[in-house]
Amino acid sequence: MGWGQVAQHRKHSQKGGRKVGRHKHLWSYVIKYEPDYFGKKGFIPRSSKTKINAINVGELNELIDKLAEAKQLEKKEDKAFIDLDKLGYQKLLATGKITKPVIVKVTTHSKNAAKKIEEAGGQILSGEEKKAEKESEEFEDETEKSEAESTDEETSDKS
Hints:
alpha/beta; CATH 3.100.10.10; four-stranded mixed sheet; three-stranded parallel sheet; elongated
């Protein structure tokens, strides 16, 4: 009727897919033969795979000095011009202080970073602003077309 005095159900799993002892006395077996036994499996969102390389406003002073020493610093409107996209940065964050007026071209930035650069006498050129400008231009074009069509219809109705 029983399982005997010695073995007593060991190595006979009755808890679904789990096998007895994998986290205790059979640990060395798991490490050697089934290294992926524990852990999460499944869907990984695409957004978590992309890495955004960011730089802080406080690091821009040092970057300006390094580029000036290497004679790679561009000047526009008597201000230093830095293209962070070419340097490999996608985002500008607001930690730190900036003392030099600078024109920064970057894909995205935080509101506080923009505020700090403008307070220092600089300017930010970003991809977000360009997208917003394009969308507003497209909206204006659509409204002009619809107004033109409505005036054409009114003139044809009158005649």
